[in-house]
DNA sequence: TGTTATGTACACCGATCTGTGTGCTTACGG
DNA sequence: CCGTAAGCACACAGATCGGTGTACATAACA
């Protein structure tokens, strides 16, 4: 994301069209959706000739898949890596999404593409599973009785908030966070590795 | 759904093309999505001439909106009207979706259309609010401390299960039901309208 | 029976979509 | 400075999209 100069194959050649294409994808696919964004418009926004785009990507499908792969997962990794928070706080922090966040592109892609076999759909599936797994890890760290279950539950809450926000056009994450708090308190024995014991996980 | 003979305006004229169109919409929009279903294909499936379709609907947008309005809400109303269940059981029954259910068309429409102003998007919003309201009513009946909050929470769980099922291609409703059980038990004072000892601890 | 709403058949429109073919320019690295 | 890979401009192909125009058929009801 930060590096715009690295060429496609590592060798620094040309003027980094690929990065511009992916950058434009981020913006347009999220603003307008995938199906409503044509390659012409995308190339224009990226200031890249259409020919060049199709030299970097065999087709729109591949571009969409790469767009999902490149989607900045800062919300995710940024939360799980915060060592200044207790595991329990980290679980809750996953619901602190700035209200400006457009909305989960993975759900959008899965719905828009509508084909579970599509590479992007498969990646979306993998990503969602990975999130649940990381939540489960953190839940285990927090001392949850059944970390896998709690992880899956919290993941469902996040997706619910995302979907509901999209449909209602109103932020649903606070509601999800409230549910999460209940679930976490229920699943974690009161005595377990909780707040004040700032479990330094020692990096 | 059952009646195919009723004409568009009540008077029985012609051969009920409108119903066939809407019936085909139900199938195709859900199987393939809205954007991936062309009017040509839809008319062919409905065995209706394209001209006729555009005499009944001013455009695809109107058809989509009507498709959502006509979507059989049996899952919803069928649950809330069951007087054989206690309010608490009714709240939980909302998560007993047969695994064959294709998946919430309202979320699909909102994502695919991608325009909050689209009539179908507006209807989806209204519908989701109505569901939350009915859940809140039932929650009140069940003696919940904060029925509105519980209704909104359960609605979010349903949407989460729907979205997650779509992305993961695996039934997520059991997980949502488990969360719902926790929320309900937390929100309803033990002594409240939790009708006589019908408490079935099925899980 | 005749009138009229309803539906049909089918060609056709312009727009837009993904994707190519071709020939030219430019920047970079040796 | 030169060769080559990267990128560009732009027309175009073929499909599909939503939507219409026109002329004809038929079913329902008076």
TrEMBL record, chains A, B:
Question: Which of UniProt's keywords are assigned here?
Answer: DNA-binding
- Every copy of the HTH tetR-type domain together lies at 15-75
Pfam families membership: TetR_N
Q: Does the keyword DNA-binding apply?
A: yes
Lineage top rank: taxon: Bacteria
Q: Which residues, as ranges, make up the DNA-binding region of this protein?
A: 38-57
Its protein name is TetR family transcriptional regulator
Q: Which SUPFAM superfamilies match?
A: Homeodomain-like, Tetracyclin repressor-like, C-terminal domain
Keyword set includes Membrane:
no
């Amino acid at each position: 994301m930060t590096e715009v100069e690295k060429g496609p194959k590592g060798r620094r050649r040309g003027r980094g069209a690929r990065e511009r294409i992916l950058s434009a994808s981020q913006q347009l696919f999220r603003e307008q959706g995938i199906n409503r964004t044509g390659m012409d418009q995308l190339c224009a926004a990226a200031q890249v000739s259409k020919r060049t785009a199709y030299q970097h990507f065999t087709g729109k499908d591949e571009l969409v898949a790469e767009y999902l792969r490149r989607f900045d997962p800062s919300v995710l990794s940024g939360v799980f890596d915060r060592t200044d928070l207790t595991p329990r706080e980290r679980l809750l922090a996953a619901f602190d999404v700035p209200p400006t966040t457009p909305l989960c592109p993975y759900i959008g892609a899965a719905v828009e593409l509508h084909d579970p076999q599509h590479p992007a759909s498969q990646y979306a599936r993998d990503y969602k599973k990975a999130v649940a797994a990381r939540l489960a890890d953190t839940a285990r760290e927090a001392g949850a009785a059944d970390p896998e279950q709690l992880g899956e539950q919290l993941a469902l809450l996040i997706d619910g908030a995302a979907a509901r926000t999209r449909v209602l056009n109103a932020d649903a994450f606070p509601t999800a966070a409230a549910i999460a708090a209940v679930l976490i308190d229920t699943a974690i024995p009161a005595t377990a590795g909780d707040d004040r014991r700032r479990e330094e996980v020692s990096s």
